[in-house]
Each structure stands twice: as C-alpha cells, then as structure tokens.
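Reviewer 2 asked us to include a model.

Predict the structure of this chain.
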Amino acid sequence: MTDEELMLAVSKGDQSAYQTLVSQHLNAISHYAFRLLGNRKDTEDICQEVFLKLWTNASKWQPEKAKLTTWLHRITHNLCIDYLRKHGRTHTSDTLDIGAAEHLLETPQSDEQNESIAIDEKQRVNHAISLLPETQRSALMLCHYAGFSNKEAAAIMNVSVKALESSIARARRSLRTQLESRDLHSTAMKPASGEINSEEKAETIG
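Predicted model (structure tokens):
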C-alpha cells in the first residue's frame, strides 16, 4: 500500500495501517529527534507524541503538498524545538554511544585496530555535532543524515532555502574549528596512517 492508502486507512481508524506506518518511519523519526534532544528518554516521549499526532491528524495530511516523511519530520522538528525552548538542551553520553553503534554496523570486524580508530573519529564528529546550535544541527541532520533536499529540509524547519544553506555553511565552519581545536590538543598520540584531517572530516558532513 502507498502512503496515501495507508493514511486514508488510518484516518478511518485502521490500527493495522497505523502500525505499518510506525514500523516504516519510527527509525528515521527517532534518529532525528535523538540528534536534536541528546538523550533516549526525551526521544521516546517525542516519538510517542509524533505518532499520536499521525493517528489523530491523518486526515489533515496533504500529499500534494509534502511527502509523508517530510510531514512527520516537520512535526518532529516542531515538537523538539518546543521542548528545547521549554527545558533547555541536555547532552548525555548517549550521543557518543549511538555514533559508535552506527559505525559498528558499517565497519568490517576483521581489523580491530582500524575499527577502534574509526569509531573514535566518529565519536569526535558526533560530539562536535552535538555542540552545534539547534538550527545548524537540525539543518545538518536533515540534509546529510536524513537525505532531504535543501527545499524539503527548509520546509521542515519552516525557513527559506537560503537560510537553510547558511545554517549548513555555518555548521561546517564550526565543525572544522572544533575538530581542528581537538587535533591541536591531541599531542599524546600521533595520527594513525590514513587518518583524514579535521577539514576533510567537516567537509564530509552535508
């Protein structure tokens, strides 16, 4: 079934269609919320609210105006921003943990030393991302990790495409500065052979 068919079914109270949509979109929504909020408990609460809104507002979705994933990410974005403005930002080690877990899924297990170095680098980048202002972090997550176009990401954030592109550019500059600063303080160990420098790490984002 298409998203349109599933959402029509949900608007009529079809719980099976609802569960199908949850299984299809939960991972992307929870990942985006986690990147903005920084901890699992708040992410779970936001995700529950997002999919409650899907259930209660299914008939309000207009497929001719936005894809379902765009609509859901915009709901998620608004809920997260409201939460952050009310409660402030929280950062936990979860941000680093999830980065390591993601990399373990991507890295072959045959070379433990290279894997350890790669995980450390990913953790450093994840931590640098977590320190970005919410607008820059959101723009980066939507365009780089979630794969939205600039136009779609701008719609989700309710900003102009120009403003979105400016946020991404500032995020890249900030990441480069943070990573270069960390490199300057990492004098205890020499860089591993083949390790990319901080500018290259920042350029790979977005």
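The CA atoms of residues 93 and 199 lie 25 Å apart. The chain has two domains: 3-87, 95-204. We have added this to the supplementary material.
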